[in-house]
Amino acid sequence: MQDYQHKTIWIIGASSGIGYHLAKELHSRGARLIVSARTETRLTELQNELNHNISVLPIDAANSQAVENAAQWFVENGIVIDSVIFMAAVYTPGRLDELSIEDIDQQFRINLNAAFYVIHAVLPIMKQQHNGQIALCASVAGYRGLPAGQPYSASKAAMINLAESLKLECSNTDIDVKLISPGFVRTPMTDKNEFKMPMIIEPQEAAKAIADGLLKSQFEIHFPKRFTLIMKMLRILPNACFFWLTKRWL
């Protein structure tokens, strides 16, 4: 895509946080929006605020049949999906021995399994229409295993791997694949953290970074770069150096 004028963009996870502000940013740039999440009330509020070029399609992305039905809704209504952006996520902080099985299952269902369901539903449609974009939101938390961040970090590490695999599998098609890797962004999820979050940014800034990045050729959209570049350095450190350095921070 060169711009967002008259493009139809499906945002999954648009009821709060980065996804909510991304919807507002893309709408301001001329996109037609389909917004999805489990919470229909918040989506309706967004629709009322933006007033036009936005439709509400409430779904539970962790329900594979609901995702398939939503994708078929596009086909049945003759709507070409120019871009689908997966922003849905949940987060429960805590060390591994403190988390319940329910917390673990929920985070993987929504953060990872749901992304597979979306890809499974929209990829055949985009192949048939010979164009499209799939953007998956991971996190720099997925670069390395850090304490008190599981299973969120593990699900985001898997999301990075998934996006890389999808990028390779779509390399001979007209489907663009993007990986979104935010650092700390002030949202209801990060409000759960009890530690000081370095270089945290506001969701409006994150939304602008994503909106700009989706139009560029680079695979990964990561921000704020002054923080994500540090995390990338940790990612390439030898294991012994990484464990030694990280333990000194704890």
Structural notes for this entry:
- The protein has helices spanning 17-28, 40-50, 64-76, 101-129, 152-169, 203-213, 225-236, 239-249, and strands spanning 8-12, 32-36, 54-56, 83-86, 132-137, 175-182, 220-223.
- The longest helix has 29 residues, at 101-129.
- It contains eight helices and seven strands, in the order E-H-E-H-E-H-E-H-E-H-E-H-E-H-H.
- With 250 residues, the protein is an alpha/beta fold.
- The model has no long low-confidence stretch (mean pLDDT 94).
- The chain has a seven-stranded parallel β-sheet, sandwiched between helices.
Largest sheet, in brief, is: 7 strands, parallel
Proportion of residues in β-strands: 5-15%
Q: Which structural class do you get from the secondary structure elements?
A: alpha/beta
Measure the end-to-end span: 43 Å
The stretches of 5 or more residues where confidence is low (pLDDT under 50) are none
Total number of beta strands = 7
From the spread of the alpha carbons, the general shape counts as globular
Order of helices and strands: EHEHEHEHEHEHEHH
The main sheet orders its strands as: 3-2-1-4-5-6-7
Total DSSP helices: 8
**Any idea what the radius of gyration is?**
18 Å
Average pLDDT for all residues: 94
What is the helix fraction of residues, given as a range? 40-55%
